[in-house]
Each structure stands twice: as structure tokens, then as C-alpha cells.
Here is the input.
Amino acid sequence: MAEAPFELAIALAQRGFGIDVELARQIGHHEQDVAHLVLQPGAVRLFAHFGAQFRHFLGQLGQHLFGVGPVETDPSGALLQLDGAGQGRQGDRHPVEHAGFGAGLALLGLVLLPGAGLGGGVLDLGVAENMGMAAYHLLGNGGGDGGKVEFVPFRRHLGIEHDLKQQIAQLILERGEIAGLDRFHHFIRLFQGMRSDGGEVLFEIPRAAIVPIAQAGHDIEQAIKGSGHGEIIAHGGPAWQGWGRGAGFMKGTNRLWRIVLIVLERPLRRNIRDSEPLQIVLCAPLGAVVGLLVVAMHEAVATLHWVNFGIRIDETLSAGLADIPVWRIAVVPACGGLLLGLIALLMHRYRPNEIIDPIEANALYGGRMPFIDSLRLAAQTVVSNGVGASLGMEAAFSQVGAAFLSVTGQKLRLRRADLRVFVGAGTAAAIAAAFNAPLAGSFYAFELVLGSYTPAALAQIAMASLAGTMVVRATIGTAPIFIVNAPVMIFHQWEYPFFVVIGIGASIVGIATMRTAVWCESVLRRISTREWLRPALGGALVSAVAMPFPHVLGSGHGAIQWLFDSVPLISYLALLLVAKIAATAISIGSGFRGGLFSASLLLGCLFGDVVARVVGELMPEYAGEHTVLMVVGMGAVAASIIGAPITMVLLALEVTGDFNVALAVLAGVVLAATITRFRFGYSFATWRFHQRGKPIRSGYDIGWLVDLKVGTIMNAEAHTVAQAMPLAKLRGVAPLGSAPILFAADAEGRYTGTIDLTVVHDPELDDAAAGLVARDLAVGRNAYLLPETDIRMALSRFEEFEAEFLPVLASEEDRKVIGFVSEAFALRRFAHEMERNHNAQLGDRDLFNIWPVK
Here is the structure.
């Protein structure tokens, strides 16, 4: 056992070349002899043949050295490359495989093997470098060479030990007989391929070998690609073309992405799916990315305003700047609408998919949103806002943010409830970044996108919202979207009736705005039959409104700041309120893309300003409450249109920093939202869903109702009988209690009705039994279900036909009975799924676990 360390080094060195063939572990008693493992003359001759070949090749390699380009990545990664072979999927077959740093030292000597170990002194020009070959490349060919077992002359005589333990130790350290000579043959072919491709190089990945995970991922990829083939995978192109070709750069980028995905995707996906803390942590960087996307879209709109209207990047279009040329206001919206129509036509031709809103995604599709379609909406919204449409950018912000986190969650294969939370977190980050208001962004997600507040979603949404806000504050600035310059506003309790009046009026303004938008859309559809021309027509109408009232252009942030900083005439304010409603309704109805969040804030601010002026004229002692009434009006109208009252209260709090003002806004907001809900029934977003025939009133998950089909809950053991079967025979075939229900079918097997067994065995029918057949007892020919019917429709069918059992037919045309469903079971499954869905939203996943009774 004195030479065991030396054998360990040799065995590990052999393993570095992929020479690792399993030996039988079974050792007999002391009488079993292991002397057959000694050196064999045939193997020596074969090795000498390949050794001569290899020395001859190295000589040729040295002669052509100066025509060969560099092929290594980072020489500092040699140790990791050699040690990387132990990171594959082999079983833990040898005790020495995990020898750690000692194995690395044993393998380190082989780095110079081509030049010193096997060169045989023939030629050595200093080419003993790390050749950048993946550590798993030779390993990938192992499956095809397993049967070529030959003796490797890297050994000494084992000797025969008399003790069984010593025999086992020696055999473990010896590493077994190896198919080594065939490996040297491939090794020679490797360098021959490098010689023939001497003009090609590997694009260097800086410090690639220093990161063991990335290096191992690359090695795994090479092993997968090269397994079963004695070929070398090309890594790039000629050095003089390398970075000059876009295709080569994209190929390299895609390879890097594959490396990251191979190494990180599976463990991350498994761990994040099962760990709520990891999901919470992940929402922070994802929210930061959403914040960057918001900043990018904001800057894109500012650039378009600079190009189209000639304003500075730091100015807002809705501020009503006097230096905007009139011809631009007259021309840009119409031309921009024409461009938008053509873009929408082109996009619809190549991708006709319907764009899924975050609320719709959470309500119907379990949080699944396509990112490409969301980018399409974002591009159209940027164009719409950039040409002066009277809408906000919040639709694009929330759409992209929600879709980005939705796609990320889908890649991680999150559960339905967790994916819905991710959609809410993406929306929260976007709204928080758009308004520099993390509290408002968070509750926007709770009220609209999730449909309810749940403690299980609080941390994820808060992390994403804060991260998005921090990114915006680090890039654009820390100021809110508008600044209230008035001092701390103190008002008395008896002033709350004014806030009630504003709440009632705000509900009227909100409902009028939504109905006007729907009316404008129907009128413009009748005027223009070509959908792609409708935005151009709408742009022309918006230009006509904006000529006397330029503040209606854009989202309205600049106009809100203008209202807080100036004192316009009350008549102008009233006309501007009507003009803004008209411009917003035209923009929505004509096909411009955008949201009503910012527009509703401006409408509310205008309405509150008008009410404050009237109150100031009638009761001068309350003129000092002017700013408070504006903020209350802003929140109340926005709550009526958007449908998120708590969000508006928190937005007012974050903008003003005054808790008393937030309480005043709460009074107006609650009243406006309540009246709108009872008198109109929808917010603007859910009203649009209602027009499209989708029963959505919030982001609360009702998609499971659509997913739960009759075909998944039916009992396939339906008993059918021929409708011409006599009653006497039917009684014998189907005794009382043999089946819950019978279904009659004609000669072709088509359903003709349901038969109750209690009726079949009714004693009152004994006298007439001889003349009766099954068809005479069948009822409910049109009472049936289809496999694709959802659970809600199925329950309504039970109520409609007042039946306890309904058959399930293959189709309307076929009418063959393939199963049946009972009302009791359908109700039980409905309650079970509803409870499970509610439980998942609360974050309690153990509700249905069976715990031992203590």
C-alpha cells in the first residue's frame, strides 16, 4: 500500500482524459486471483503504434505552429476544466472521485502532457497550452467506445495481496482496465482537426473558466452535442471576420444564453417554484427591470414630443405651451393617427392575436400573458401618446410590466396562484414607477389586477413596487408627477359636506366620460368602415379640440401642474373639462392606444377646481380650501373611472404628504366609487370586457370556472338501453338500485331521453307494462351536457331542467352518450375548486392536507 498515492494520481490522470470504464466490484474469497490484470504484450504493441502516431503528429503540429490561430479561452481556467469532468451525471462509482483539491493537483500535471509527456523528445516548441477544449468533450464519446477495452500501460504490477481488504483498496485505486488507446486515437484526431482549421479561433469569453458554473454549463453543452460523434463543435469563425458579422455575434450571444439556461434554469425553477421567500427576493430585480422599461418608454415619448411638437425633452405636452406652432397641433395628431392605423394593420396581419390585459390575464387565464403582444400594445401606446392622443401611458407601463413578470413566472413554472401574484407585482412596479408612488402602485395591483388584498401577495408586490420606484428616482428624479405648492392644508370637520358633494359630482363626470367613449367608438365605426383609417379621423377631431384647448393633448400631467400653479377663469375651466372629456372619448373610440388613469386625474382636478371656484364665490371664507377640493376631485373622478379607491387615497397621500388631505380624499373617493358601482356597475376597464362579452368585473380568478369542464368531472359508466326495449325486459335488465339513471337511445345509438329507475319499477305500471317500451318512459330529450361545457354553465343547465342527472353527449350532431353528471357531484366539485382557489390566494397551501388527529 505504499504506492497507493502514486496510483491515485495516475488513475485521476486517466480520468481526466475521459478514461473511466466501470470494473466489476465483485471480489471472491481469498482464493480469487487478480494476476490476470498484469501487463499484456499485445496491448504494449498497440500502444506503441498509437504512441508513434501521436509523436509524428506533434512534429507536424510544431512545423505548422505559426499558421495556427489561438484557440484557448482563459488559461487560468485549466484547473477548473480538468476538474470539471467530475461534475457530470456519472454515478458516485469511485471513492476517489471527490478527492477535491488533491485530485486537481494530480490532474494539473497533465496540462503539459502534449509537450513533455508524450512528445517523446521529438519536438517541443512551447505549444503546451490549454487548448480551450470542453472538459466533457472526450467524455461525450464514451458511450460508443465502452466495448473497446484494452490495457493501458500507465500502471505498475499490482501484486497479489493476501488480505481481502487490501485487494479491494488496490482495485479501487487502480481505476480498472480502461479503453485508453482508443481515447488517444480521438485525441490525435482532435489536434488534426485543429490543424486543418488553423484559421479559426474561439471567441474569448473573459474569465470564462473562473466561473465554474458557466464553465461546467459550456462543457455539458459540448458533451451533449458531441456525444456519439467523433467531431469537434465549431466555436465561431475566422479571426479576421469574427466581430464583423452580425450573425456570428448573435450566435455567440445565443450560446451564452444557452449556457446560462442549462446551468441555472432547472435548479432555479425547482427552487423558486417551491419557495415563497425566493419568489419575494426575485420580485425586487424584476421590479427594477420594469422600472427601467418605464423610464425607456417615458423617454421615447418625450423624444417623440420633441420631434413632433418642438418642445424640450423636460417639458410636457399637456402644459399648453404657447410656443408650440399651431400647424403642428393641426397636423401631427391626424398624421400620427394614420401612421398608427397602418402599424396596427401590419401587426394584425402578421400577429392577429388578441392582446390580453393584466386584469383579464389574472381573471381568466391564471396570469398567463404573451410578452410579444404586450410589446405590440406598448409600441402603439408610445406612438399614440407621441402624436398627442389625449390618453396616458399607464396602459403600456402596466401591460409590459405585468407581461414581463408573467413570462418570467411561466419560465419558472410557477403555480397558478403564484403566477397571478407575479402579474400583480409587475403591474405594481409599473404604476409605482410611472407616478413615483410605491403605495399607490401596490394597491393598484391589489384592487384591480388581483381583485382582493391577500397577505400572501403583499411582500412580492411591495418588493417589486419599491424596486421600480427606486429605479425611477435614480434615473429621472425623486419629485412626484406634480407638486402641490400650497402649505399644509388644515380644514375643519364641518367642511366634509363639500367633499361629499364632490364625490357625487365626480361619479357623474366618471360615468359620463365612459359612456361618451363608448358612444364615440360606435359613431366612428359607422362613419369609417376601414378600421385602419379610424385613428386618422380621430386624430383630426382631437386636433380640432386641441386648437383652442391645447391642454387636452397628451396624458395630462403637465396640465395638472398648470392648474395647481395658475388661476384660470372659471369659464375656461368648465369648457376645458368638457373638451378633455371629448378629446379622451375620441381618442379611445378612434383606436388610439392608452389608458385613462392620467386623463381621469386631470378630469378630476378640473372638476374640483370648478367646484372650488363656485364655493369661493358663494362662501368666500372657504376660498382657502381651493387646493384641497382640487385634490379630492382628482381622486374621486379617478376612482369612478379606474375603480381603485384606495389607490387614489394613497396617491393623494404620497403626492401631498398630508394625512388630513388623504382623509378628505377618502370621503369623496368612497362615495364616487360606490355610486358608480351601483349606477353603472363597471369601471372603464371592466366595462370594455363587458362589451367584448367577457364576464369580468375585477382581477379575481374566475378562470378555473372556465377550465373546469364537464368532460373532466363526468362519470363515464353511463347505462344506455334501446328505446324500443319492452318494459318487462327493461325491468329484468335494470333491477331497482342497479344504476343511478338510465339513458334511452335509438337504433343508431343517439340519445333520446332519460329514464328514472323508480318509474321503471313503479307498481302502478304493472297493468300496462305489456304495452310499454323504454321510449314511453324517457324524458328530457334536449336536457344534456357536452364535454366542453364549463361547470358554471352545467349548474345552470341543472337548474333550467330541474334534473338530478344529465347525460354527457359526444357532440350536438353525434348525440352518443359518453357519460353523465349528477347535480350533487357537480356542486361538490364546484365548492371544492372554489375553496381551493380561495385558499391558494390566501397563501395557505395545506388546507387539504390530511393531518393526524392528536
